[in-house]
């Protein structure tokens, strides 16, 4: 754990120093903590560090935590060590929601469409779990994975259809799939982090259930 924290700190420091304009450790320190003064060069450094590189670094860390926890939960529920958020249609649901609202309402700011991404991901997840609970294989991890893949393929096709019919949606989809953290400020990060924090708290309540699932369906039913 200590090694991971150390690597995270190092990666964060590198993110603050590396970019279109490389900064020395001293310049990064000045940009973070120094008070404003009349020096134009130092003012530019503070602007670069505080308004560009700190937000992108924080966003990358928050997104990494969310993806890591989400992936661990999905791997536990599906008992698949290589499963990820794409397996249950979460990614496809978010992408479809984003391109749809851009095509329908002309949203271009991430702060405008990020909420629809949350909604699309949630709806897709509910649909997948609903489909997997129908029939003889209800509750089976394999059924859950198959339902997820079916929903993913359908939503991916719908997303492509919408994107090809609207240039703005296509551009947004490219940016979305690239996963860039550039150009996003704390006005987007703060509310998104709140939602992620709630999700992390809920995730902390699931380890007992995941441990039971890892022992097999019969054991899990016996303890239910």
UniProtKB/TrEMBL annotation:
GO biological process: siderophore-iron import into cell
Membrane topology: Multi-pass membrane protein
Superkingdom to which the source organism belongs: Bacteria
Protein name: Iron ABC transporter permease
InterPro entries per UniProt: ABC_BtuC-like, ABC_transptr_permease_BtuC
MF (Gene Ontology): transmembrane transporter activity
UniProt entry tagged with the keyword Transcription: no
Location of this chain's protein in the cell: Cell membrane
One GO cellular component term noted in the UniProt record for this chain: plasma membrane
A UniProt-annotated Pfam family: FecCD
Key words of the record: Cell membrane, Membrane, Transmembrane, Transmembrane helix, Transport
Transmembrane stretches, start-end: 57-74, 86-107, 113-132, 144-164, 184-204
Family: Belongs to the binding-protein-dependent transport system permease family. FecCD subfamily.
């Amino acid at each position: 754990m200590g090694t991971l924290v150390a690597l995270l700190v190092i990666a964060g420091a590198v993110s603050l120093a590396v970019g279109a304009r490389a900064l020395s450790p001293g310049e990064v320190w000045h940009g973070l903590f120094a008070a404003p003064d009349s020096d134009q060069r130092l003012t530019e450094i503070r602007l670069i560090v505080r308004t560009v590189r700190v937000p992108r670094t924080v966003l990358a860390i928050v997104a990494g935590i969310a993806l890591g926890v989400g992936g661990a939960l999905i791997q536990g529920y599906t008992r698949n060590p290589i499963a990820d958020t794409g397996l249950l249609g979460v990614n496809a649901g978010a992408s479809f929601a984003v391109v749809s609202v851009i095509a329908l309402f002309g949203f271009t700011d991430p702060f405008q469409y990020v909420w629809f991404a949350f909604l699309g991901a949630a709806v897709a997840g509910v649909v997948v779990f609903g489909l997997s609970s129908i029939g003889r294989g209800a509750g089976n991890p394999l059924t859950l994975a198959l339902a997820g893949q079916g929903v993913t393929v359908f939503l991916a096709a719908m997303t492509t259809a919408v994107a090809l019919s609207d240039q703005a949606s296509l551009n947004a989809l490219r940016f979305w799939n690239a996963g860039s953290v550039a150009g996003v400020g704390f006005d987007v990060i703060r509310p998104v982090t709140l939602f992620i924090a709630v999700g992390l708290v809920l995730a902390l309540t699931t380890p007992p259930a995941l441990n039971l699932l890892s022992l097999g369906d019969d054991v899990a039913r016996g303890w239910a």
